[in-house]
Design goal:
Structural class: alpha+beta
Helix content: 10-25%
Number of domains: 2
Oligomer: single chain
Shape: globular
Largest sheet: 8 strands, mixed, barrel
CATH superfamily of the largest domain: Diaminopimelate Epimerase, Chain A, domain 1
Strand order of the largest sheet: 1-2-3-4-6-7-8-17
Radius of gyration: 19 Å
CATH topology of the largest domain: Diaminopimelate Epimerase, Chain A, domain 1
């Protein structure tokens, strides 16, 4: 069996930056265990398998795997797959079937190997539970208790399909000096797969509004350069504090800077009578390589 694949860098316009992604093409017929083994072989934060759609009017069906688990939804595989399918099929919109539901992504071509994709969240984010023990969170992150909190933002677990512990911190300097204490990590962050999205506002950075870092030991990765599903969860917390009764707010978030893999994620939210009615994620992606998986007979 031979399978073609592409390598992309997502949430960036530049090769060798952003979040790497493997896209396996025409992956119909692969068993779940085979897809998981291939994702483990690539050993990237996520590998996406493009298959034929279940409904004829849709563009493709996606299966998304980290090195250890399958995900019902993830942002950078959605953006990367939309760019690949948009380029290959000359489409301005792609309809993607994911386990969480149907996602329509708008695509704009930049050149023959790159473009931008934006999509509305298939599930609006909501709070799962608040987080109140700042001391143990601070100890797990290697920072001080007074470093936790940013403006009126408070820690909490939110989900737009994948659960994340959202932890606001005082400023970008605090974000930079995080040192994880894995011995107490599961106790400090007990929900879901212990994934943590630490974020802050960046009023002194002209190119973005927010900065974040994401740590996900339960997903088979350490730190992730750019996490659309975490940014999607963050929309839930942002919407509670944006001074909008009815209207739209747009943000630019940077992630991965501390890893040397800078990502730029666009975030959009819309409220109607102070109720969140729309959330959106977007970013650029560039194809940086291609190859063939040779899995034998």
């Amino acid at each position: 069996m031979k399978l073609n694949y592409l390598l992309l860098d997502v949430f960036t316009r530049e090769p060798l930056k952003g979040n790497p992604l493997a896209v396996v093409l025409k992956a119909d017929g692969l068993l779940d265990g085979e897809m998981q083994a291939i994702a483990r072989e690539f050993n990237l934060s996520e590998t996406v398998f493009i298959q034929k759609p279940h409904a004829e009017r849709n563009t493709a069906s996606l299966r998304i795997f980290t090195p250890t688990v399958e995900l019902p939804f993830a942002g950078h595989p959605t953006v990367g797959s939309a760019v690949v399918l948009g380029l290959q099929n000359k489409l301005s919109a792609v309809r993607l079937e994911e386990q969480i539901g149907l996602i329509t992504a708008l695509f704009e071509k930049s050149d023959k190997r790159s473009g931008e994709a934006r999509f509305a969240l298939p599930r609006l984010p909501s709070q799962v539970v608040p987080l109140n023990d700042k001391l143990i969170m601070a100890q797990a992150l290697g920072i001080e208790v007074e470093d936790i909190g940013c403006g009126s933002y408070k820690p909490g677990v939110y989900s737009a399909g994948v659960e994340f512990h959202l932890v606001p911190v005082r400023d970008a300097n605090v974000l930079r000096r995080i040192e994880r204490n894995m011995a107490i990590w599961p106790v400090a962050f007990p929900h879901g797969r212990h994934s943590v999205y630490v974020f802050t506002e960046t009023p002194n950075e002209p190119d973005n509004d927010l900065a974040a870092r994401m740590f996900a030991p339960g997903l088979g990765m350490g730190e992730d350069p750019g996490t659309g599903s975490a940014a999607a969860a963050l929309i839930g917390l942002l919407s509670e504090h944006v001074p909008l009764g009815t209207g739209q707010a747009d943000f630019v978030l940077r992630q991965g800077t501390e890893m040397g893999r800078p990502c730029r994620i666009t975030i959009q939210l819309r409220k109607d009578n102070d109720v969140l009615v729309h959330g959106g994620i977007g970013g650029h992606a560039v194809i940086v390589g291609e190859g063939v998986l040779d899995l034998g007979d």
